[in-house]
Amino acid sequence: MAITGQLxxxxxxxxxxxxEQGNKTGRLILQTPAQSPDAPDRNFYLWLRxxxxxxxxxxADGTGLLRLMHRKGLLQGxxxxxxKEFFHGLVVxxxxxxxxxxxxxxxxxxxxxxxxxxxxxCALFECSQGQFEFESQVAMPMTEMTGHMMLPTEVTLGAxxx
Length: 162
Description:
The protein is an alpha+beta fold. Helices cover 36% and strands 19% of the residues. It has one domain (2-159). The protein is globular, with a radius of gyration of 16 Å. 29% of the residues are buried.
């Protein structure tokens, strides 16, 4: 099932409320207008499980969390071959996998999740134009997940500074 619409008609907080109250599982794609006429529109991806946000990324290829962790220096000491293996057969969220192997701490994962979700979603609240699509029949991207989750209303309150 896919639900599509315009952010001008159905705001992000309204969309979050619908997904949360309906305990929806799937991927929300937000396409916002480009910052300049030369640039392409920007896509942003949010994954939800039973109405809770489990991941957010601006990358469609499943590398957003790895890029973020690399920028924060959390993947030091992990061989490149092992990083490549993350994309093949990971059955638990990447963050959980790394925590079990003592390669990241619970506090580091919490900070990464906050950066991954709160900071990125906060910028989306400034967009009143664009379109959205929610798809319920998509696989959860384990390489984009820390193992943390948050209610969309909590994200909304945090993004609005309330």
